[in-house]
Each structure stands twice: as structure tokens, then as C-alpha cells.
Amino acid sequence: MIRKLKDFLHRPNSLKGATGILAITLFLSNVLGLLRNVVLAGKFQPEELDIYFAGFQIPNLIFNLLVLGAISTAFIPVFSELIASKKIKESWQVTATLFNLVTIVLVVLSVVLIIFAPQTIHYIVPGFEKHRLDETIAVSRIMFLQAIIFGWSYIVSGVLNSYKRFTAYALAPLFYNISIIIGALLGDRIGIIGLSWFVVFGAFLHFLVQLIPAWKIGFRPSLTLQLKNQSLKQILKLMLPRNFSLGIQQINMLVFTAMASVMAAGSIAVFNLTNDFQTAPTVIFANSLAIALFPTLSELASKKDWPEFERVFAKSLRITIFFLMPSAFIMFILRAQIMRLYVGLGKSFDWEATIMAMNTLAYFAIGIVPVGIVAIYSRVFYALKNTKLPMYLGAGSIIISIILANFFGKLGVGGLALALSIGNIINAVLLYIAYKYVYHKQLEELQVLKTAGVSFGTSIIMITGIWYTLQLVDRFYQLDQIPTSTQEVLGLFIQTSIAFIVGCGIYWLLAKLWQKEELDLLHQRSKK
């Protein structure tokens, strides 16, 4: 049994197998993530969660700038190329050097920012009173430990992805979320500060789960620091544009956090909780596919097998749209029911805060499909070793989002979500135009547009069915002999579940009639 488990964790995965594993585990991770947020919303007041989420901002900025871009766009292509060239020794040397370099830079920056936290945090949450500001500073200082541990973990993730071993990589977030859930359940005793330590412990589990299979592959930390290594120079060159882009994105979140801090109490919490919820479909369907897609596209690009490159790209884009279009419509039509169950279950979020969350989710739903498209297009550009174009286009879109946020701020925190969604739409359109006119490649545009159009029309029919189902269940509850209603958790959950199942059923049945090609693509991916 143990041997089979080890084989499952260590064996390499094909694109289809990897996508399936990532989709399943990311689904479970997102379920846990949403459960985590439900517990957080039930155990802590919105004002306390404002502190918790604000405390993440600067550590996340440092991590995104120094690590995330390096791994997602630079380390994996270079490391994969070294493996393909049978330069195994050099591949481990550059990995160890990068590991040590990231550790040194993260530790030094973290120490400096921990010391100067009072000066920096004040600009992130200008609307906070002194006691909330002091607690945010304490949380932020603890979160720098998470940034360092995640730096190690994501380098190990890059090793596993390059060897196409996605199982441990996909399981790691489960352990991270479980740790936070346990901390949240103990919230009455340990408070926000105690919860922050559980976040750090979760990050350590995230690292440990991946370290075990990476160690078996051959990963070994060492005291080497070969700064003149050509592969390291290539990684640093490739990572700079992506890191700049991620830095701009994180600055966007810092600006939005500052704006939300001067809005109604709980606005930061509502923005982050609803943002986590709306990203779930993108993470499950688009990101899982994009992560599994990246090594394959990098390999095809290195071989210059452009017909297969285009075929894989187009299919991935169509599958992403096929899943995300109905997800966006479902989220919009069921936003009231979802938010009442999501943040309104506990006694911490009052009705006013719940309505704020409903409106915010509605605006976020507008950008779900574009975010998925951006995830796929970005990996395509990275596979082509072009990190500059996505950087410029992403930065431009984010600047537009920040400008729009100033106009839409009168809508409250929902206006921030609307600005972000419009920015994502612009980014998706610009990436499409750039790919078409820079590389002059045929992307089976008609098939992709057909998928988008049919999915849109089918989704309209689907939400019509959902709306009527909601009304029917509500009328059914009004009968004298029915012991529950939508004013109770059980009744609301039953109504939402029935409407969701009916909606999914309608979409799937219509897809069998009108989208057989997309279903065939799904069948092909799940077959292997």
C-alpha cells in the first residue's frame, strides 16, 4: 500500500494525466480554501479579517517579485532544457544556487521590512485606527516567514513540474489550507496573531510535502553559489519582465487595499473573500490546465513543432472557455444565495456586509472568463520565452484598473471588483491581438469563437432554468407543511443546491447537442 502511494507521488504525468490530477486536487484545495474562508468569516469580525488580509500584502509583494515570476516563467524552461540536454549535474547546480540566492535575498529583505514595518504598513492601510494598525504590523511581520518558506517551496515545485511530477505539487495547497482551517477553528482562543502562526506552519507543510518526492528525484540543497553560471544568468534575464509584471499586480492589490481601508469597515475582508471565491473556477479549470500545459508547450517550442503547438494551445483555450463561461453565469445568478452561505453563516458578518459581498461577487463574475484566457495565453508566451509582451500588456491593464477604481470607488468595494474585471478583459484582448500579429500564427480562431458563442448562448438558457428553479423551490417552501425556508441555512442550502444541479444539467445536455467537439476534447484529455 505504502509502495503504491510512493509510486503515485513520484511517477511522471502526461499532459492529460497531469491536467486531471491538478484539476481534482485543485478542486479539493479550493473547496478547503472556501471552507477556510467560511470558518474565518464565522470566527472573526470583518474588522479583524481586514487586519489579517492587509498583513499579507507586503510579504506577498516580496514573494511575487523575487520568486513566483522566476519559477513560473524562467526556471522551468531553463531547467527543462538542461534535463533534455542530459546536463543533469548542471541542472542541480543551478537549482542549488537559485535556492540559496532566493533564501539570502528573502531573508535580508524580510529583516529590513520587519524593522521598518510601522513606516510601510501605515501607507497600506491609511484608514486604520492605531490599534488596528499595530495589529496589522504584527501580522505582517509573522507573514514574512511564510514568504521565505514559500520561496523554498516554489523552487521545489519548479523541479517537480519540470520532471512532470504534479501529484505532490497539487497536494501541497491542501495541507496549507488544512493548517489555516485548524487555526481559524481555534480563533476564539488564539486570535488573529495565533492564526498567522498557523499560516506559517501551513507554508512549511506546503514545502515538506513537495520536498520528499523532489529529494527522490535528486534535489539537494547545498552551499554552492555559482553566480557566473550561464543558466542562472538566463533565468535572471527571463524572470525580470515577469517579476515586474507580478510586482505591478501586487502593487495594484496594495492600492486597492489602501482604497478599501477608507471605505466601510470590513471592505478589505469582503474584497479578499469574494476574490478568493471568484478565482476558484479559474484555478480549477484554467490554471490547472495552464500549469500542466507549460512544460509541454515549452518542449514543443524547443522542437519547433508549431502545428502541434497550435493544436494544443487552441484545445486548451476552448476547454477553458467551455468551463468558465457557465461558471461566471452561475456565480452571477446565484450570488445572493452563495454569499449568504459563504460569509453570512456565522454571526460575524451582518446583513449589510453580506449585501456588500453579493454586489462585489457580481462585478467579479464579469472577469472570470478573461482571467482564464489570460492564464492560457501567458503560458503560451512564456513557452516561447517571451516574457516582455505579457509584462507590458499586463502592466498597462493594471494601470487602467487603478484609474478606473478611482471612478468606480463610489460603488464601494464592488467598484474595485468592477475595475479589476475590466482590466482583465482588456488584458485578454491585448494578449490575443499581440499573439496574432507578433507571431502570425493561425489559432483556429473560428473554432475558438464558436466555442465562446455557443457557451455564452447555452449559459443564458442555463441561468433562465436556474432562475425558475429558485422561484419554484421558494414557492414550495411557502406550503404550510414544509418545515424550512430560505431564511434558514438548511432551506437556503437545499434551494441553492437544487438550482445549481439543474443549471449544470441544462448546460451539459445542451452541450451534448451543440458542443460535441468540446466534449470530445474533454474525453480525449481524460482518457489517458
UniProtKB/TrEMBL annotation:
Molecular functions (GO terms): lipid-linked peptidoglycan transporter activity
Pathway: Cell wall biogenesis; peptidoglycan biosynthesis
GO cellular component, one term: plasma membrane
Annotated TM spans: 21-41, 61-84, 96-117, 137-156, 168-186, 192-212, 251-273, 279-298, 319-343, 355-377, 389-409, 415-435, 447-470, 490-510
CDD domains in the record: MATE_MurJ_like
Keyword flag Cell wall biogenesis/degradation: yes
Keywords: Cell membrane, Cell shape, Cell wall biogenesis/degradation, Membrane, Peptidoglycan synthesis, Transmembrane, Transmembrane helix, Transport
Family, similarity comment: Belongs to the MurJ/MviN family.
Function (record text): Involved in peptidoglycan biosynthesis. Transports lipid-linked peptidoglycan precursors from the inner to the outer leaflet of the cytoplasmic membrane.
Entry protein name: Probable lipid II flippase MurJ
Organism of derivation: Berkelbacteria bacterium GW2011_GWA2_38_9
Source species taxonomy: Bacteria, Candidatus Berkelbacteria
